[in-house]
Specification:
Blueprint lengths: L5 E4 L2 E4 L10 H5 L2 E3 L2 E6 L2 E5 L1 H14 L8 H14 L6 E9 L13 E8 L7 H6 L1 E5 L20 H13 L4 E5 L5 E4 L3 E6 L2 E4 L10 H12 L4 E3 L4 H6 L2 E6 L3 E8 L2 E2 L5 H14 L10 E3 L2 H6 L3
Helix pairs in contact: 6-8
This protein binds 4'-deoxy-4'-aminopyridoxal-5'-phosphate.
């Protein structure tokens, strides 16, 4: 990874190399952490964090699902994100990773007496599924691992331990030679990619699994739904059978890391080069992130790099 200089940890900026935890931290043993993945983009008016408030809200919801009180409020976390960007001089855009975890002091499964720690790191991270993938689409494969069901673990929370599910699917499909995994839910319908939501276009309509299909309520998914509405594209939120992916006119995935990435092939069925609806929504999305579309200006939280750098930690 592309290291930066400073990481915000429990209220202060520390050197990248010093942002450490004890090996007996609760989260390391049981996956008891929650996190976010956020991007900032380089706009004409400097770096701007994309949908920061919504990401911090989801972080709070994930934490509260696991009875984890975050010892900083939303304003403090927002300021900390700005500081991390400024302190590291990340004016060209970056990926931001807030992490809240149960720390050192308590072992065993009852976690409520463990301290809750918070860190925010940021670094430069290019296209998660590759520039080539964004332009021409990626090859995806359905994993044999099912997406965690909401009666087992709340699929709507973004918690560390939950990602073991995505990791198994990712490794399986990577070893088979594909760039991304698609997970079906326990009922056998399409749920998510390993770190993305999924969309299908058929006969001009945009179809995506509903939030009760064991998906993560993606913020990029929400952007695409809003942009599609503005574009007058019909949206259907319904269960998608696996084979519908093979019959689709277009398929794409969305996520903060993956952005809006077309799928060219699913399970060795050719979907083809990115189609017109994918391209239209992808263009709208990137225009929004780069601050080139006044209609979505309120999705951007501009960082005043010089002011944030001066703020006390
Ligand atoms: N589904 C899963 C399983 C994910 O990990 C992610 C990434 N956070 C997403 C969907 C997309 O969410 P977002 O657009 O908020 O990044």
């Amino acid at each position: 990874m592309q290291e930066a200089e400073k990481i915000w940890m429990n209220g202060s900026l520390v050197d990248w190399a010093d942002a450490k935890v004890h090996v007996l931290s609760h989260a390391l043993h049981y996956g008891s952490s929650v996190f976010e993945g956020i991007r900032a983009y380089a706009t004409d008016q400097g770096p701007a964090v994309f949908r920061l408030g919504d990401h911090l809200k989801r972080l709070e919801r994930s934490a509260s699902t696991y009875y984890m009180p975050i010892p900083f409020d939303r304003d403090a976390l927002r300021t900390a994100v700005h500081q991390v960007i400024a302190a590291n001089g990340l004016t060209e855009g970056c990926y931001i990773r807030p992490l809240v975890w149960r720390g050192y002091g308590v072992m065993g499964l009852f976690p409520l007496d463990a301290p809750v720690d918070v860190a925010i790191a940021a670094w430069e991270w290019g296209a998660y599924l590759g520039e080539e993938g964004l332009e021409h689409g990626i090859r995806a494969k359905t994993s044999t691992w099912r997406r965690i069901g909401s009666t087992t673990i709340p699929a709507t929370a973004k918690a560390g331990g939950q990602y073991l599910n995505s990791i198994l699917a990712k490794i399986e499909t990577h070893k088979a030679g594909y760039q991304e995994a698609i997970l079906l839910n326990e009922a056998g319908y399409v749920a998510d990619g390993s770190g993305e939501n999924i969309f299908v276009v058929r006969d001009g309509r945009l179809i995506t699994p509903p939030v009760n299909a064991s998906i993560l309520e993606g913020i990029t998914r929400d952007c695409i739904l809003q942009l599609a509405r503005e574009e007058g594209i019909e949206i259907v939120e319904r269960e998608i059978a696996r084979a519908e992916l093979y019959l689709a006119d277009e398929v794409f995935v969305t996520g903060t890391a993956a952005e809006v990435c077309p799928i060219r092939e699913v399970d060795d069925h050719l979907v083809g080069e990115p189609g017109p609806i994918t391209k239209r929504l992808q263009a709208r999305f990137f225009a929004a992130t780069l601050g080139r579309d006044p209609r979505s200006a309120d999705w951007l939280d501009h960082v005043d790099v010089s002011a944030s750098a001066e703020q006390p930690t």
